[in-house]
Amino acid sequence: DTGVSQNPRHKITKRGQNVTFRCDPISEHNRLYWYRQTLGQGPEFLTYFQNEAQLEKSRLLSDRFSAERPKGSFSTLEIQRTEQGDSAMYLCASRPLGLAKGELFFGEGSRLTVL
Amino acid sequence: AQRVTQPEKLLSVFKGAPVELKCNYSYSGSPELFWYVQYSRQRLQLLLRHISRESIKGFTADLNKGETSFHLKKPFAQEEDSAMYYCALSVGDSNYQLIWGAGTKLIIKP
To answer: Is A101 close to B90, i.e. CB distance below 8 A?
Structure first.
């Protein structure tokens, strides 16, 4: 499968623990996005990378959340001191140069459950 | 404020019946709209975009700026159309921001 890959697919953790998710975009897709989706809602934008540069973060993203994309390839999303409200599906998407802003290729997501 | 509204959380129709999934948007600029679909246990995928004016899997969607709508339609529903459908708005002044509706679950009854 040459699509966007996310790991782990599921993560159960206790409140207060740190978790990290990884996203491997489609090769040569220089734009990478992280979204969060909770039950009954559409995806909610978290952050955006163009190559290795993090160009934007949502104002909704607390300082417990951090994302990186070293070397402009894979990306990681870390959540520190998790809270029950962080329980959600975390989606990664990528897009190559030349496609419209809304034409994203999504991964299957990483589901986080905070107990 | 920029917003996308999908008024129906659930839509259930019989196979062979017409389908219309509603999407209304609020945006003062020039909108670019998309429909995404998520089949059971599969990832979100782009279904169609209004600029291309194409028909995908028998679905079409027309942008109506007067009514600020981008409804998704199919004349004859098939069982394999059962899925979650999301409408999304790309705001022109942003390189990253897609505004998403809450989604409509479409169930096609045999």
So the answer is: yes
The answer to whether the Cβ–Cβ distance between A48 and B96 falls below 8 Å is yes
Question: How many C-beta neighbours within 10 Å does residue B93 have?
Answer: 6
**Model pLDDT for residues A30-89, shown as the tens digit of each residue:** 999 999 999 999 999 999 999 999 988 888 788 999 999 998 899 999 999 999 999 999
Q: What are the structure tokens assigned to B7, written together?
A: 């008024």
Q: Which residues of B touch A23 (CB under 8 A)?
A: none
Is the separation of the CB atoms in A19 and A12 below 8 Å? no
pLDDT of residue B55: 84
Query: Of B46, B95, B102, which has the smallest distance from its Cβ to A42's Cβ?
Result: B102
Per-residue b/e over A86-102, b at no fewer than 16 CB within 10 Å? bbbbbbbbbbeeeeebb
CB B108 within 8 A of CB B95: no
pLDDT at residue B107 is higher than 60: yes
Judge whether residue A1 has pLDDT over 80: no
**In the prediction, which pLDDT does B95 show?**
60
Neighbours of B90 (CB within 10 A): 21
CA separation for the pair B42, A104 (Å, rounded) = 15
> If DSSP codes are grouped into helix, strand and coil, which group holds residue A86?
helix
